[in-house]
Specification:
Layout (H helix, E strand, L loop, with lengths): L1 H5 L4 E2 L12 E2 L3 H9 L4 H13 L14
Antiparallel strand pairs: 1-2
Helix pairs in contact: 2-3
Amino acid sequence: MAARLNQLPGVSCVDSPGALYLHPKIDLSAGAIAAAREAGKEPDAFYSLALLDQTGICTTPGSGFGQKE
């Protein structure tokens, strides 16, 4: 799965053999970050909620793990 994620533009992911989860890094565009700020949300949370609303895929934003960047 990590290899497939790494094929997507703006996505990087370290392989985690044997684990049931991955932690991909998604580089958001300046426009996506601005839209999140306008909505009063952190960009990663905004993206996670949009992903859930539009696809049904549930993710946890990096800020949920204490990520600062």
